[in-house]
Structures are given as structure tokens and as C-alpha cells.
Amino acid sequence: MIPVSIVALAILAYLLGSIPSAVWVGQAFYGIDVREHGSGNAGATNTFRVLGKKAGIGVLAMDVIKGFTAACLVNYLPDISPVTNKTLYVNIQLLFGLSSVVGHLFPVFAGFKGGKGIATLFGMLIAIHYLSALLCLGIFVGVLMSTRYVSLSSIFAAVMFPILLIWIFKKHEPLFISFGICAALMVILTHRKNINRLLTGNENKARLLPRHYRNA
Prior knowledge:
69% of the residues lie in helices and 0% in strands. By secondary structure, it is mainly alpha-helical. The C terminus is likely disordered.
């Protein structure tokens, strides 16, 4: 039987993930519900598109912190540590981190209509295995700089994640590897519309430079 403390912390992790950063920032500071504009997505990318860089950076940071904090809730379980049982420690980090990602996708505080979970997923990865997270970030930035497609960058980084775990970092935890594969599939599934737009050439490109630089 799963201890009550783990169940309680998993619920707390879900509630953390359910904080609808994009919705609350848009409504509190701009009087705008980002779900009614742009792509209609309640995430950092659409916040950048609808509300601008300042709001987008704030929402991005909040979403990353949600995933990171959720994965770190394992430290409130005194009988579990990376020293005594590394595999169990990582598995519970995965449980709490994924609970926050589910909260971001289906937030109880925003009618269960959330974002795509990329930033929150990245936050939990920083807490669990920061080297793979940083490499995925590098891949994301590299693809973004060369294509200017945020969606393609997210998909490419997600697909590379399990590959990095297996062939670069030689990880052997079965649940962690399975998580990496499932995370890649989740990112692909949540970007189905973006993939269709990429295939038809209708996907929006990110503005990497301020307008006056791009027009110079």
C-alpha cells in the first residue's frame, strides 16, 4: 500500500502544477485571458505571443518552478533519500513531477484547460537529472535559432531526451527510461495541431529579435 504521505504530496504536486500562471498573469496584469487569443493555449509560448516578452518570461519561470518544486517534494519524506535508495528516490521524484505536469495540462484552478507542459516538464527534469535537462535545453535553443519554430524545438528536444539517457548518460533505472520515452510521446501528442501546421507550412515562427532589429 502506498503511504498516505506520498499520496498527500502527490496531490500537492498536482495542485502546484494546476497554478495557471499564464491565465492569472494575463488576467491580473493585462485584463486578458490568453486562452481567448493567439493559439488559445494557456502556456508560456502563447503568453509571449499575446502579452509580450516580460509576461512570457514571468510565466515561463513560474511554470519551470512548478515542476522543479514538485519533484523536490520528495525531500519531505524523511525515510527516502538518494543515499539509502537512489532508485526509489528518483521514482518518487518522477511521481511528484508528473503529478505537477498533469496539473499543468489539466489545472483544477482553470477549468482543466491548461498548457502543453513543456516548461513544467523541464523544471522537474532539472530537479531529477539536471545534465540531461541542460543538454535538452541546448538542443531546444539550437533548433529554435535555426528554424524559429518553438513547437519543432520542443518536439526535437523531447525526442532526444530518452536517447540522451540511454546512450549518453547510460542510465539503467527502468522507470526513468520509460518516463523519458513516455514524455517524448506526450510532447508529440500535445503538439498534434502544431505538427499539422508545420506540415502545411502554417506554423507561426517565433520573433527572436525586437522588431526594430529585424527591420534594420
